[in-house]
Amino acid sequence: MTLNITRKLSTLLDISSLIPTIFLRASPGSIPNTLFPSSPSHPTEGILESLLLSNGRTLTYRTYGPPNGTPLFYLHGSPSSSLEAAALIPHLSSRNVRIIAPNRPGFGQSSQQPNRTLTDHAQDVLAIADSLNIQKFRVIGLSGGGPYSLACAHAIPPERLAGVGVIAGVAPWKLNPTKGMDWHGWMRFHLVRYLSWTFNIAYLRRSFDDKLKSWNVDERREFWRKDVDNTAIDLGEKDKLVAQNKEVVEEIVDCTMEAFESGCEGPMQDSVMLVADWDFKLEDIEFEGVKLYFGTEDRSTPVYGAREMQKVIKGAKLVEYEGDGHFSILTNRGGEILDDFVINE
């Protein structure tokens, strides 16, 4: 471990420094690989939509690609946002794929949802699909979005699903997801798992929110750039190369900035949920044909967890990309994943 824990805890001067560097990257961040024209830096890209649910909550989501293309719900990492799905834009038109990318509760401008579960988000996905008159669709989740994709496989009627996929996703705790993980990530996961009670301390949430609000946009962006640097330190060579690309870093920062647009409550809640015991069992998933896409050199969500999930999920298929990691898998394999998941099914 090239950085010791003391350095990790010294990002900010007060106790709220524990939150961004230790907890919020516990479910590894999103990995975009191309320009995001609709991000804060590029405001012309994509279509941002909102949906008012019957319970009064608002869901926001973005759509990408041909309006009449094959519908694919893309579930973002954590902490991240619907901006993340723009990584796949170069591959959409030629494959006639339309992406619908929701912001989870508390992310971006989506309303908070106290005490939510993984399978609750499956109902959000269904609500968006119904509002768009989409009867059958595919769902794929990246990193921290992976468990939500599997929750869809469990909670959405199989006749509504054309496919369920996971890209470099977090495995449930009982399958030992930290085996093969870099030390930095291992420590983050265990801190979130066993110190999750700290997220219930309102003072910490307010302290971190106040800290972010006290900074101007440039200061917040610089804070998240440093967080990306810290995340990438112990990763593999291909991931380090991706993280050294300034455009990619700015895209990751864009996603994170939007994730915290409504404060830290949503991302903090997400981090705890992903390392806590899930509200469904993988062996109870009735949808057959779940596809898992992992890089063999992923040190954030190691392929070991994917291999264990394949053993448990009925009919699951695992595609391993030799030498790729957590950051590089979309950069190098985004088109291949769409071909396998959407086109060749």
Q: Helices, strands, pairings?
A:
Elements lengths: L4 H4 L9 H6 L23 E6 L5 E7 L5 E6 L21 E6 L15 H14 L5 E6 L3 H10 L5 E7 L15 H12 L7 H13 L2 H16 L4 H7 L2 H14 L5 H11 L15 E5 L7 H10 L4 E5 L6 H16 L2
Parallel strand pairs: 3-4, 3-5, 5-6, 6-7, 7-8
Antiparallel strand pairs: 1-2, 2-4
Helix pairs in contact: 3-4, 7-9
Number of strands: 8
Radius of gyration: 18 Å
Terminal residue distance: 42 Å
The CATH architecture comes to 3-Layer(aba) Sandwich
Précis, in short:
The chain has 345 residues and is of the alpha/beta class. 39% of the residues lie in helices and 14% in strands.
Describe the structure.
This protein is an alpha/beta fold and 345 residues long. It has one domain: Alpha/Beta hydrolase fold, catalytic domain (Rossmann fold, 3-Layer(aba) Sandwich). Helices cover 39% and strands 14% of the residues. The longest helix has 16 residues. The protein is globular, with a radius of gyration of 18 Å. It starts with a helix and ends with a helix.
